[in-house]
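Tokens help. Consider this.
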Amino acid sequence: MKARKSYSLLCALAMLGAGISTLKAQNAQQSVSLSVKELSNSKWNTADGIPYKQVPGVNLGATAFEVLSANRIAYLCNASNEVIITDKVSGAAVKKFPVLFAARDFVYDKGLFYVLNAKQVSVYDTTGKNVSEISFLNNV
């Protein structure tokens, strides 16, 4: 029985090795070209920048961003529980408004910010006013 287990393990390792070799060969044939472009350079830990905090077990700061227009970017900041809108050229914050505690992600669409946390999505207008809530806890 011991020899059979060893043989099975050896066969499994050989198949895995063959699969990895095939994967490497396929990847070598495909060429992927990526281009990185800086959109903005925002200020960190300044009065007109994006807060950053180190606390035990976690670093808090910008967790997501959305390009709003040719000259504005919005960041979701879990260090301050805010959406922070910055100027792309100067990197300075031009508007801030508070959002849900422990927000996880957000998206901007047609003039509204949709901010996600564990229990709901809160909808904010561009002035930072909370215009609606979409609860999904009981719908799951």
The chain is about 20% helix and 40% strand. The radius of gyration is 23 Å. Helices lie at 2-29.
